[in-house]
Amino acid sequence: GFCSVLSLPGDPRGVKAFIHTPETPQAQRKPSKPSMRKAMLPFLLAAAASADTRKLTNPCLSAPFAALPFCNASLTIDQRSRDAVGRMSLTEKIDALGTEQGPTPSLGLGKYDWWSEATSGVANGAHGADGFHTHFAYPVTTGMAFNRSLWRVTGEAIGREARALMNAGKAYSTLWTPVVNLARDPRWGRNVEVPGEDPFLTGEYASSFISGLQNKQGGFLQASACCKHFVANELEKTTQLDGEEYDRRHDNAQVTERDLLDSYLPPFEACVRAGVSGLMCSYNSLNGVPACASKELLDTAKSWGFDGYVTSDCDADRNVYNTHKYAATRAEAVRDVLTAGTDVDCGEFVTRHASKALAEGLVDEALIDERLVNLFKVRLRLGHFDLSFDNKKPRGPLDMIPESVVCSKAHVQTSYEGVAQSATLYKNDGALPLRRVETLLVSGPTANISQVLASYYGPRDVCGGAYPGLVDAVREAGRVDVVYEQDLDRAVAAASTVDAVVLALGTDLNYAREGRDAPSIRLPADQLRLVEEVAAAARKPITVVLLTATPLDITALKANDKVGAIAHLGQPSVAVVGFSDLLYGRRSFAGRAVQTVYPAAYEDAISIADFNMRPGPSVFARPDCAMKNVSRCPRGVNPGRTYRFYEGKAVVPFGFGLSYTTFRYALRVVGATSFVVDVTNTGSMASDDVVLLFLVPPNAGADGVALKNLVAFDRVHVGVNATVSVALSVPSTVFAKKGAYRVEAGVRGDSRVGFDAATVFVRGGGVV
After folding, report:
1. Taking the CA atoms of the chain, what radius of gyration do you get in angstroms?
2. Is 313 a catalytic residue?
3. Alpha carbon distance 252, 333 (integer Å)
4. Which residue in 130, 242, 259, 313 is the catalytic one?
């Protein structure tokens, strides 16, 4: 069970909101049987297919198929793919247009399912595999590391486990990850799945993650990555006070060309440049055209050099007809998505109505062939027609990956690193690191939500079968006596008896997830009351740990002198144990905020349905207007989205993060677009450091010009009294606008624990 993060009606003190039903001990638990779920409730798991139906067999290893051209490795992938498609019956071809492709006798192929989930590790159930798998922190956490190596290694571990499970006959190898939409609105339900709000950061994350996950070996991809959701998909379902409801299946995202080019499209272009083998078109329409029926949109990916397959989001092809009303008939909707370039339909819409589209002359078999050629090319790149999937009879290095790599010590340690490198320190008045602590109180609604989070686009059955939470992270291997109390009165009483207090605040999947946007960015009243009462009773300033993908307004916590430290962890799930080294000072914080934390009033000014990035008047009603006559509601005003355009003062700015040590910086211009930052550790503790380079363009903040843009970053380890030179190169394309550019080094400031981002931004770092 888990506790609510919201006040409960009729309970004046909110005590019940902190009641937590302890989880059943999990140490000896066997993998649970998967439960049925609706297609778009990813935190519930699908019924698993039997293992024998997932066992891939290479038809090219036996007669009569071995002698056929599609099995001839000396031919090009395109030639082989076209030969395979040309041998299929029309019935087989239509069946292959759906994600759950049945057996294809003409090619000697068994069933194949294109849909597998792996955002935080290989999922369980029908869209993953049975058994225990490594669970990694979600991207909203690992993005804060600003570490390309971490992202690559994480992707590599997930892809390796997927290939091992495929070799064992338990899984497939087309993984629908990563999500590269932007955290452009703090209320978006799927912020947990993305690495942040900045397009350059998101693109760099995607490139590194894809490189690791696909990890070409012996000429074949380890697994196939799929960047989603293409494009402007950052809305789930929201009902405003005036009764207006917005949801992704009906949404027509109105996006300016300027916003498309410099915000929404760049992460997907980065995916393509990195060689991603899959793209997913999104539910929404873009400027009146459903994404999966937009030839202009999908051709844009081709113009970047995309060579892979395009899948619809689940039932998005059907939505072309039934919610967007773009096509007059189902057959016309089939024509629209196939003509646009959507290769495979997640669902049954296209497979059910393709025959009618053929009969009416809306599509022809040649068009279907083109869609299938793209699918088979990806399977050829995965080695499905060349490898054995057998450790005992390997035909390449990928065949030799055994199931024993799943939940390996190295993979589990990588998951912990994802938290240790990413956790970000928002405030520290000397409360951290914890020293000489023998007794410690843990309370708060997110202290034990690891299991609840685990199955959301990741493995439900995690390595070892246990679901450690924040309580486990603070135990110090049993050296600290932890009092875990969720009753408010008892938590207040305990606070005065222990050496330290850690309160876990934030949100869970009841608050924001796929299909549901966050109702607010205000810190829930019960959580604020918990902080105030416990902090007042504690012997010394307390530590607040934020476990949330929704950036909540923590103004009150920052201003409270009895809150000595605030650490933001995102949503790490079971990997939260990696926080222990930071809490107790064996390592220093080095993470940086990847989401702007806005003041609560932000949510009243602008609707989540407004996709404009730049500030200005909105056509949508103010979200705080409760008049049911929508026409009488005042229109909102967009204050600007993300640090690049937001004109207000952030509660926590993008890129902010404190350390246990201090640094000195020197910025050198070494070329027209090249810089070196000399980072010297002037403190008493060796530490990682993240160096961010922002470019301030001419006329910044005027006429829609960004206030600044992140253009380069790196993460380095700096020993005590040591200096590390960080080379940062800026692509010349960012200097498209004529005029003087100012370079700002988004590095730590020179105060005791450093990095006052606002001060650094004002000071700047040089002029080009």
Report:
1. 26
2. yes
3. 17
4. 313
